[in-house]
Write a structure and sequence with these properties.
244 residues; alpha/beta; single chain; 6 strands; binds farnesyl diphosphate
Length: 244
C-alpha cells in the first residue's frame, strides 16, 4: 500500500460560510489612522477571503458589508462605506466574472443611491449563470426587517386567498426571505472578539456553528479562514462521536 493511500482524505469544507467582518475601526485607531483606512484594508481582506473561498471549494460565501443599523454612523463614514462598495463593484466585477463567481445581494439594497443599485443589478445579471462560488453581499441588511417583510408577504397571500393558513411551514417561510434558494450557512464567523450576531441571518443561522475570532477584520487572511474551518471540523467530529 502506498504511503499516500494511508493518508486520511481532507474533510470537505463547509458548503456555506457567512462572515461578520468586524474590527475595521479598531484596526485603524490602533494605528492612529482615520476609520476609512480600516475599511479600505477591510476591502483588501475581503478580496483575499473571496479568493481563499474559491481555492477551498466553498459553494457560498456571505459577507455582512452594511447593516440596516449602520445608517446611525456619521454621514461621512456612511459615504466612505458606500464609496468603497461602488469601487469594489466597478473594479472587481470583471475578474470575479472571469473566475466563475456568481454575485448576489441580500438586504434592502434597492434603497441605496441609484448608481449603486445599477451596479448591483449589473453584477447580479452579468454573473447569474456562473457556477463557481456564490458570493452573497449583505447591504442594508437586517434580519428583523427581513422576517417582518416575509410575514407581511405571507399574511397578504393568505388575506388574498392565494395561500391557506395551514400551508405555512418553515420551507414556505424561507422562500420569502432574501436568501430564497441559498442553503443555510454551516459556519458563521465573527471577527474582532465580539460575540453576537447583530441581526445577521437570525433565521438562516439556526443550526450554524458559530466561530468568534479575536483577529480584527483587516488582518483576517487565508490562514484565519482555514483556522475557522478547522474549528468547524473539530466540532463536527465531536458531534459525530457523541451521537454514534
Ligand atoms: C465593521 O467594522 C465593519 C463594517 C461596518 C463594514 C465592513 C465593510 C467592509 C469590509 C468594506 C466595505 C464592503 C464592501 C463590499 C466593499 P467597524 O467599523 O464596526 O469596526 P469597529 O467595531 O472596530 O469600530
Amino acid at each position: 500500500m502506498s504511503e499516500a493511500s494511508t493518508e486520511t482524505a481532507p474533510l470537505p469544507p463547509p458548503a456555506h460560510i457567512a462572515i461578520i467582518m468586524d474590527g475595521n475601526g479598531r484596526w485603524a485607531k490602533a494605528r492612529g489612522l482615520p476609520r476609512v483606512a480600516g475599511h479600505q484594508r477591510g476591502v483588501e481582506a475581503l478580496r483575499g477571503v473571496v479568493e481563499a473561498g474559491q481555492e477551498m471549494g466553498i459553494d457560498y460565501l456571505t459577507l455582512y458589508a452594511f447593516s440596516s443599523e449602520n445608517w446611525k454612523r456619521p454621514p461621512r463614514e456612511v459615504d466612505d462605506l458606500m464609496g468603497l462598495l461602488r469601487l469594489y463593484l466597478r473594479r472587481e466585477l470583471r475578474e470575479l466574472h472571469c473566475n466563475g463567481v456568481r454575485i448576489r445581494f441580500i438586504g434592502e439594497w434597492r434603497l441605496l443611491a441609484p448608481d449603486i443599485v445599477k451596479l448591483i443589478e449589473d453584477a447580479e445579471e452579468t454573473t447569474t449563470l456562473n457556477t463557481g462560488l456564490t458570493l452573497i453581499i449583505a447591504v442594508n441588511y437586517g434580519s428583523h426587517r427581513e422576517i417582518v417583510e416575509a410575514s407581511k408577504q405571507i399574511a397578504a397571500a393568505v388575506a388574498d386567498g392565494n395561500m391557506e393558513l395551514d400551508d405555512i411551514d418553515e420551507a414556505i417561510f424561507a422562500q420569502h426571505l432574501h436568501t430564497d434558494g441559498i442553503p443555510d450557512p454551516d459556519l458563521v464567523i465573527r471577527t474582532s472578539g465580539e460575540q453576537r450576531l447583530s441581526n445577521f441571518l437570525l433565521w438562516q443561522a439556526g443550526y450554524a456553528e458559530l466561530v468568534f475570532m479575536d483577529v480584527l477584520w483587516p488582518d483576517f487572511n487565508k490562514q484565519s479562514l482555514q483556522q475557522a474551518v478547522d474549528e468547524f471540523h473539530q466540532r463536527e467530529r465531536r458531534y459525530g462521536a457523541s451521537s454514534g
